[in-house]
Amino acid sequence: MPNPKRRHSKSRSAKRRTHYKAAAPSVSSCSNCGEVKLQHRACPSCGFYKGRTIYIPKSA
Ligand SMILES: [Zn+2]
Q1: Cα–Cα distance measured from residue 59 to residue 52, given in angstroms and rounded to the nearest whole number
Q2: All residues with CB under 5 Å from ion ligand 1
């Protein structure tokens, strides 16, 4: 089995990992109430998703 001959230094791994970045969550606005919501999730303020109401929020 091919194997690396030498182990990488910590700085070499760190240099490669400079490209690992946390992405901001993609948000959109609700088509029903206009509230900012996560994509592919029901709206937290009105419970609207894909053209219909999925649930009634407890406090709204
Ligand atoms: Zn909404």
Answers
A1: 19
A2: 30, 32-33, 35, 43, 46, 48
